[in-house]
Amino acid sequence: MIVAVASGKGGTGKTSVAANLAISIGNAQLVDCDVEEPNAHLLLNPEITREEPVYRLVPFVKEELCDYCGKCADFCQYNAILVIPERFLVFPELCHGCGGCVLTCPKKAIEEEKYRIGVIKEGFTRDLRIAFGELEVGEPMAGPLIREVKKHLDKSRNVILDAPPGTSCPVVETVKGSDFCLLVTEPTPFGLHDLKITVKVLEDMKIPHGVVVNRAGIGDKRVYEYCNEKGIPILLEIPYLRKIAELYSRGVPFSLEMPEWTERFRELFEDIERLVES
Amino acid sequence: MKQIAVLSGKGGTGKTTITAAFTVLAEKAVVADCDVDAPDLHMLLHPEILEAKEFRGSKIAVIDQTKCIKCGVCRERCRFDAITKDFTVDPFSCEGCGVCTIVCPVGAVSLTERISGYAYISKIKYGFMVHALLNPGEANSGKLVTMVRQDAKLLAEKERLNFIIIDGPPGIGCPVIASITGVDVALVVTEPTMSGIHDLERALQLLRHFNVKPFVCVNMYDVNRDNAYRIYRFCEENGVEVVGNIPFNPVVTEAMVNGKAIIEYSPECDVAKEIAAIWDRLEAELLF
Predict the structure, then answer these.
(1) What is the pLDDT at residue B74?
(2) What is the torsion angle, in degrees rounded to the nearest 10, for the CA atoms of residue B10, residue B12, residue B13 and residue B18?
(3) What's this model's pTM, rounded to 2 decimal places?
(4) Are B136 and A205 a contacting pair at CB < 8 A?
(5) Per residue in A175-212, pLDDT tens?
(6) Domain ranges across chain B
(7) Chain A interface test: which of B36, B97, B252, B265 (most A C-beta within 10 Å)
(8) Could you report the predicted ipTM of this complex, rounded to two decimals?
(9) CB atoms B99 and A98 under 8 Å
(10) What is the largest CA-CA distance in chain B?
């Protein structure tokens, strides 16, 4: 089973929930898809056994064949190519790598080359398998790297995907193909507002979902009212405890020091399994 | 006119709380919420919308089923796996590149514009707010951020306002890059956790890459003083000025629940005082 952990608002505890869940259920794989700011490895300290650079394709021109007709630039929807008399310029940071320019060039003057966008690292923490992507600083597009990271899913295990914050394309890319999405929120107006947007995305994508309320006890009751009205199950509440915050700050998954939580995360996973089956 | 961006790398470190406080302290400014896929600033500043604009950030392929001969060429050529088995377009995967329109042998595919969100120009008690809302799940948030920033700039020029304060999105990808290009200074808000430190380092690398002068403040520094100390040392080694330490105080959440900036809700609390001191430092940096 593939379970994505998302939130909308940042800093609600996605990574913490994903890491604790993955440790608790055993024989799992945790895949950190927040390639802009991957953090799961900071909580799990895996021994990295494999590193693989990731590239996307960007065009280059063979100047001797190019007659500067500009068809490629006209075609490119992303303004990644500029053709002016006697000059062909590519802006790799704008290129989505669709390959359309290669297809439109009447002189077959355009080819593609690899452009490094990041790295995928894989490893183990005891029996937990871990994979994560690290986007090159300055590279704008997270999507292509997330797509590559997701080619490293180990389907023989239960897979937990740690999503980036927000509700736009990198989140869609992460949760796509998941059996279930766990939404981690905090009971505050910001948490609720961003939760609602994320629920909308999941409804459109037809992915079943449930909520984890983190830092329960702070804020107000509106997250509960909203979930009640929408019939979204609240599967777990994690209270706001100084101890949990401190453990997180030191990079320790709290279930390791508070073993009663291992059982609760196992139950959470069983609840998810039941919801997916029904 | 000067522009300051509030960033973090890691989400949930307090960007919006600090931006709202800065807006109140600046008294009259343009504030731009550039976290267009999960904007929260409006819940503290209560904008009155003056103008709304459609954002047409991308296109999407449409297959005319009456012409389609199901040959599969588009499916084969699409690098985004956006053509489904029954030859419809998956809106969540389509990046609007148009390759399918040129490879289709019978001209059954075309590109249409899609409305990807809205941008707003609004009035607030402390000047103006420019903000946006990307439709859930959309791409091209960077372009929408650029639109918000252009509106903010025009507005600041027209109204002769000195400051544009930018609430940035988390991360280091396209919407963040669009939020920081051309700003005068950036304040990176971090927290004393392992993730906070890791993400701070990447955010600072990004600012260096784009030549933006960084400042750092540590929010909830008292949750882990050892880590706060590590951040000071790291910043010192890298020549980055730490402009403030904000203590943990539940009054911040209370202010949020009441829909107010912390400076309005509890001007005498330790958090409000520290943010005011940070603003004074940054204002001096921007003006002199």
Answers:
(1) 97
(2) 130
(3) 0.94
(4) no
(5) 999 999 999 999 999 999 999 999 999 999 999 999 99
(6) 2-56+116-287, 58-114
(7) B97
(8) 0.93
(9) yes
(10) 71
